[in-house]
Design a protein that fits this description.
This protein is α+β, with helices and mostly antiparallel strands. It is 52% helix and 10% strand. Helix 18 (458-471) packs antiparallel against helix 19 (475-502). The model is unreliable at 1-37 and 415-423 (pLDDT under 50).
Amino acid sequence: MWNLSVDMEAAPRESRMQNKESDIGVRRASNKKRYQNLQSIMQIPEHFTELSIRMFDTLDDSGAGKETLLERRRTYLRREQIEKITYQIKGLNRECFHFGSQSEGTTTPGLQSDIDFLYSNHTFNIMTIWEDWKAGLDNLLMLHDNTTPPQQYLLQDIQDYTPEPATSLTDDRCVRKDSGQILFSAERWKQHIEYETRHMGEATKNGPSVSVVPNWDIVQACHIRKPLPEIQHWIDRCRGKHWPPVQLLEAARIAPCFLVPAGHPDSDYKREEWRLSPNLIERMLMFSFNMTQIKCYIVLKLIKKSLFANIVGDAITSFHCKTLMFFTIERTHPSLWCDHNLMFVLLLCLHVLRQCLRLGRLPHYIIEGVNLFDGKLSKLLQTRLLVYIDSLIRNNLQDVFCIGIDNISCRLQACSMRHTVQAGELRGVFLHNSIRLLLKFEYLQTLKQSHTTFEHKLKYVICNCFECFEKSRNAMSKTAALELIKHFYALHISVQSSYYLRLQNVLDCVNIRRVQYSLNSDVASSRLKFASMLYCSGHLQAAVRVLEDVERRYHSEVKAVCIVRRLEGDRDLKVFANMLAGNKEEEISELPFAFCVRFVRQESYCTPAMLLFEMNRNITQEEVANRLLVETLWMDSAEVDARPFLYYMQYITYGGLGERDKQLHAMGVLEAYIDTCIRNQLNLYHLETALNLLGHCYEMEGDYAGALDYYELSLSDERTNNAANWHILRIMRLISG
């Protein structure tokens, strides 16, 4: 058996700096010879090749294939660009990044990975030396001495308008150290974030993350732009090795790092300390993985979550698995990382973990002197896990047949896996397309959310987007800028048309042609807004033609997309699989999504009169005060699900044309649709608004009792901030004469 024992202790600095060219050449030749003999020296079980190929295919069928991985990366990197441009347009001096499994593509549906989001505020100027001080910024000097744990820093508060230490506590986020120094406290910073986001909901704290969004880890960090000795030491250590590649090391030299609010568990200043995190370098390392390395990492995480968890709970994390991968890839020849060796390289990773458990320490791959077991894995748990790892290796990884996540065990044991493991299960191309639809669904939400607060300065925003497009050298950033321009332009045209109608001008063919540029943003909402614009301008026949076109496009598999509300289960992969019914193994030609239809106040003259009440939902100011932040972003607008709005528009348009039979048919379809949703618990995002529209149909029919029933039903769904309160008052006045 090849001895995988390695000295995990870092070499002294003096010896590390003695990487001469002759030493590098000798080491390369020696390593190459050792790696060539590795498979013959190490006793590899005969069945490993077959098991490797089966595991490789199983992961493909479980949503970890190459196409799905690339789709995840493209989606999250594009979302990152959208959010960066949005911050820039808002005038916020910050950057944001999606890190972790979702943006790496190293996850499966069964792993249920959170979304890791980090943003750094550039109003903080992190100083490594006094010469870094800048006037007018929040200057913070990095402090590190012999008593500070590796990877940890204290941040000393420096005055804004003179390069001298602050001497008084004028900021609630600061504390005074015993030495008298004023420190910017990591714990106080997280408390400040929690207080600032209190109106958005209850915050969840997890390590450096403070998040009010379910399944998101959101970290507000500080940016370090200057080179750091920790990173340079790592680059020096990696010189001359086959991995990481030279180009990556050169990029790492200039990549910024971050300070995140997290202290060392054994430190006297753990509440004040900030942890150095080279997230961008780690992302570059992950992006350099080939598919065998990606799948090995995913299997490690599956083992961690399904097997290790029975022994140590959640003490072993995905970052531990990632670190094991880094060390193993660095120490093995690239030729070993191929699909038929998957189980063998997995075994190598477990050997490295076993050695770390024996030593009682797992070093950080980049930052010297850090033990990743500290504060995570006690000595007792290390011993228990070591016993299990020994057993796992002795049994030639047979426990992988016990992994229940993503039905891995059944898929591995199936004699004819690709044909027998299908009943009620998403797999292969079908699963890939379902994940693709889910990713597109979430991306469209991000895209739409980006322009919820820009109605008053659309021309300025569009110009800024063009500026971002012209300045960017990144293709992903250019694509994101163009998509934002398209959506902002559609809103701009609608607002401009409303302005023309307010002045009692007729919409001519030029105005109408402009609208048509944005009609393909989704299946229905943009076309429905166009139909509403035509209706309000008196072009009823043209409105009917647009509505008929929407009805043809709006097939049963179209899914609503709402940017302001979430429904339980609306991100379930089975929902997206159902949308692929009848087209299970092929690419879908048109994305079957329909945004909720939203009219802002600046579009009032393009909005049916009934929906204007939705822009004034509250009866009292107390109702406004009780709104969450996300509600304040849309409750002064009118927002309704696309399908009920389609039927309502048909009702009022056919009524305007005097086509009574078609008008009554549209009302009947609207009522049947809402009734079906309520009875079958097929939730609408804006049920109360749909009920208000149906109540208005009854009101226009002169059936005030029926109208009152539906307005009251609307109130039973949403008691406050509901325009039904106004409608009931109106109806009661009409009934009383």
